[in-house]
Amino acid sequence: MRPTTNSTPAPSISAPDSTPRRSLRSRRTVRRRFIAAGAVLAVGLVAGTGFAVQNAFEADARAQATAQLTKATGLSADSLGVYSSIAAAKVKAQAEDTITLANATLEKADGKVDASALAASVASLSDYETIPTDDVADLTKETKAAAAKTAADTTAFEQAQAAAAAKAAAEAAQALAAANTPDGARATARSLASSMYGWGDDQFQCLDSLWAKESGWSYTAYNDSSGATGIPQSLPGSKMASAGADWATNAATQIKWGLGYIAGSYGSPCSAWSHSQSVNWY
């Protein structure tokens, strides 16, 4: 028998519609890109938010400071800006003046006291044109303090030097006064006669007798009739300037000249004394 044939036709199987699948893939791609973009945007927002918060915080701090100054001074923000510029210029001007003063102090202190701290402060302050105003103000204050200390140290040093010089001068004056007495002059003559010419006590005895007769060993002795001056009775007295400019006030200078005159004219004090005894002058 022939198989019975179903008269109802079998449904045909056709190829799937490609359009819905492409649309699905497209939607998935768009979704992935959207998610990725969202992630990037989220990261950017987080990072940006950090900077924004920081900037906002700084701006808020500035705003609060400005508001406080405005309230305290009664000035507007613009006026505060002007006054801030003026204040900054004043700080720099003070820095420049301080450097000038400090340099003068350093010059005066040179070779007298340790001024290294002041020199370091001046070096730091020399950049006042480029460093922040607050730092300039602090450095100016430090430099002024260092300059004041250096100036005080220098003054103390100079006072000590002056005191030492005054003491030395007083001691020299006392020594001169002692040396200018007749006994002091004799002691000086004895020492110089030995050290300069090798004359011993025998020659000094002749010298003592000679000048005791001539002037009494007085450095102020003066002969009104002849003009002979001083211990050796130099004629004129200005001849003794060859032994020293202080010939009129220093017995030792007169003695040096007198010993030289005796050595050149008579060879020894005893020869000069012998001549004086013979003719009453030498």
UniProtKB/TrEMBL annotation:
Indicate, by first and last residue, each region the UniProt record lists as having compositional bias (Polar residues). Answer: 1-17
Which keywords, in A-to-Z order, does the entry hold?
Membrane, Transmembrane, Transmembrane helix
Q: Where is this region: Disordered?
A: 1-26
**For this UniProt entry, which segments traverse the membrane?**
34-53
Superkingdom assignment: Bacteria
**InterPro entries documented for this protein:** Lysozyme-like_dom_sf, TAT_signal
Q: Does the keyword Ion transport apply?
A: no
Name assigned to this protein:
Phospholipase
Taxonomic source organism:
Agromyces terreus
